[in-house]
Structures are given as structure tokens and as C-alpha cells.
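queue> pop job 88
queue> type: inverse folding (structure -> sequence)
queue> payload:
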């Protein structure tokens, strides 16, 4: 038996650190909504160096793939990637779109804008599946727009656990009103327009991908990513039809010149019957200035009043007093 030199342990450790792994690729070279596809590559991965050693192989997800050498996590990753392929999206659209039954036979021309209803269905389908990828610890990479699919062009990207929060700001400048959009991630504010790729479904910034908390956020982000400007004459209708719906879900701050504040005293209270399983429950509705809110809604109600907004602060004490009487 040869005397030990100590190199055997190093060699064994080096081998153990290298293994066959699969990685998700967020490919930004898709020309239609949502402007990216999901691909899978495999190769020898070095855990300590946190990178692939040598070239990687793109897997054809439409064919059988031998996963015997994959970890359980990578096998699940492969399953998730298959669910995100265009053929699966088309199946979902075929079942649920107004063109149900013959969606796949419709010819879609390049750069042709998809109907809003189709985008809603696509986001509804993709969002929960992307969420599963974000919840797992996977190797994720990014292929920038305009780059060929080869190992050298693949960039490491992190699927962040942080939740982006969208918000809006309205300012008045002369005869013009401006609606600006942004998002907050860990107390840092970014513009929606700073998204570093074309897709609104995910927000890419400085090597990190962020997933919106709700599927519908993606379409709001796409619509308002560049902000909007309106003339003074069009402002009252824009406030009512565009800005006010945003206030029900997102934080919207207004220029001080546009705001009037009030405390509306006692709310008008009504009861609504709500069916919950086998039970019927009474749900109080509190009406302020003609707007009804439930207990869990925002503390401040924003009401359009000509070219300004009225901030109505709810009387929480009065609401709680009625709730206690109802519960008793």
C-alpha cells in the first residue's frame, strides 16, 4: 500500500464539488408577448465556484430526456419548464379564449399586438408556474435580447424572494398632468421604465429578477411603465377613468395642489349577506360620500371631485362600535 500524500482527499473533494446540473434560462429573444421563453440547459456544474465548467447543452423539451443523473430538484425544474412552453400556453388559450377550440389554427403575424383578453389569459397561466420556480433554489440564467444561444452569452441571474410593490404619483405642471409609475423593493425605489428587458411579467434589474405578487400586476406594469401625460381639459375624465381604478389596489400619491381633505363624520352603514360555504354571514358596508368600503379596505377613501381629489378619512371608531354591536 502506498503511503498517503494527502492529495487523495483533495481530488475526491474536487470531484464531489462537480456534478451534472440543469439550469433554467430566461430567454429574452421571443418577439411576442410576454417577450421571453423558458429553456433548460444541462452541464457540469461546480458548486464552490458556482458556475458551469465548460460548455452547456440546450435540452429539447419536446423530446424524452433521461433524468437518471439529475437531482430530484432538477427533475422538478424540468417539469416546471415543460409547463411553461408555448405548446402548453396554446393549449390553455385553446380551452379558455373566445376562440376556444381553434386558437392554435389562427395565424399570428410577427409584431402583431395580441388582444388584451389573450394577454390576461397568458399571464393568468404563466404567473403561478413562474412562482413555483422562484420558490425553489435553482440555477437560473438569462440570455439577453439579440444574443445567440451559446454558453458565452448566458448570464447568471437571481430569482429574488423580495416582493416588488407598485406605486404611482400624480403631479400638476402648468396645463399638464402627469402620472408617474415606480416600484419599491426593500425600501429602494425604481422606475418601471428601468426594467432591463422587454417583459412586464418579470422585473429585471442589476442581475435580479422580481416576480409581481399578483398576475394582474404584470399588465398594469406594461400599460403604465412609461407614465402618462394628459392636458388640463382631459384631466377630469382621466382622473375618473384611469387614476381612480388604480387607487383601489395601489398607493397613489397626489400633488398637494390637487388634494382636499375631510373627515366625513358618521358613515352610513348597511349590511350585506355573504355566502361562505354552508353559512350566510352579515358583512357591514360603510358608506362615505357615496363610496362603500368593507372593514379590511384602505383607511383613506379617494373621491374625484371635478379636477381635484377628496381624501376622506374613515371613522374607524364608529365602524368598530357597530361591528362590536353586531358581534354581540
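queue> result:
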Amino acid at each position: 500500500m502506498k503511503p498517503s500524500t494527502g492529495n487523495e482527499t483533495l481530488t475526491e473533494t474536487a470531484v464531489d464539488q462537480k456534478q451534472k446540473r440543469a439550469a433554467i434560462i430566461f430567454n429574452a429573444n421571443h418577439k411576442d408577448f410576454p417577450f421571453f421563453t423558458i429553456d433548460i440547459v444541462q452541464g457540469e456544474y461546480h458548486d464552490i465556484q458556482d458556475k458551469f465548467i465548460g460548455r452547456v447543452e440546450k435540452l429539447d423539451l419536446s423530446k424524452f430526456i433521461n433524468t437518471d443523473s439529475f437531482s430530484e430538484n432538477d427533475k422538478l425544474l424540468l417539469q416546471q419548464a415543460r409547463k411553461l412552453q408555448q405548446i402548453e400556453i396554446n393549449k390553455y388559450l385553446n380551452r379558455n379564449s373566445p376562440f376556444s377550440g381553434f386558437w392554435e389554427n389562427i395565424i399570428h403575424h410577427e409584431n402583431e399586438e395580441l388582444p388584451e383578453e389573450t394577454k390576461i389569459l397568458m399571464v393568468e397561466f404563466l404567473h403561478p408556474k413562474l412562482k413555483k420556480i422562484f420558490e425553489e433554489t435553482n440555477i437560473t440564467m438569462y440570455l439577453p435580447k439579440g444574443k445567440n444561444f451559446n454558453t458565452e452569452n448566458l448570464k447568471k441571474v437571481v430569482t429574488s424572494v423580495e416582493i416588488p410593490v407598485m406605486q404611482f404619483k400624480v403631479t400638476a405642471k402648468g396645463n399638464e398632468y402627469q402620472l408617474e409609475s415606480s416600484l419599491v423593493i426593500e425600501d429602494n425605489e425604481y422606475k418601471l421604465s428601468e426594467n432591463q428587458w422587454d417583459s412586464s411579467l418579470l422585473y429585471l434589474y442589476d442581475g435580479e429578477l422580481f416576480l409581481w405578487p399578483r398576475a394582474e400586476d404584470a399588465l398594469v406594469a406594461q400599460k403604465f411603465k412609461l407614465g402618462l401625460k394628459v392636458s388640463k381639459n382631459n384631466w377630469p375624465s382621466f382622473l375618473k377613468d384611469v387614476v381612480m381604478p388604480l387607487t383601489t389596489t395601489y398607493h397613489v400619491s397626489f400633488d398637494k395642489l390637487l388634494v382636499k381633505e375631510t373627515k366625513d363624520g358618521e358613515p352610513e352603514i348597511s349590511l350585506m349577506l355573504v355566502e361562505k360555504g354552508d353559512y350566510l354571514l352579515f358583512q357591514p358596508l360603510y358608506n362615505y360620500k357615496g363610496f362603500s368600503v368593507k372593514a379590511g379596505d384602505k383607511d383613506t377613501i379617494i373621491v374625484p371631485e371635478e379636477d381635484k381629489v377628496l381624501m376622506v378619512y374613515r371613522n374607524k371608531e364608529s365602524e368598530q362600535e357597530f361591528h362590536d354591536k353586531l358581534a354581540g
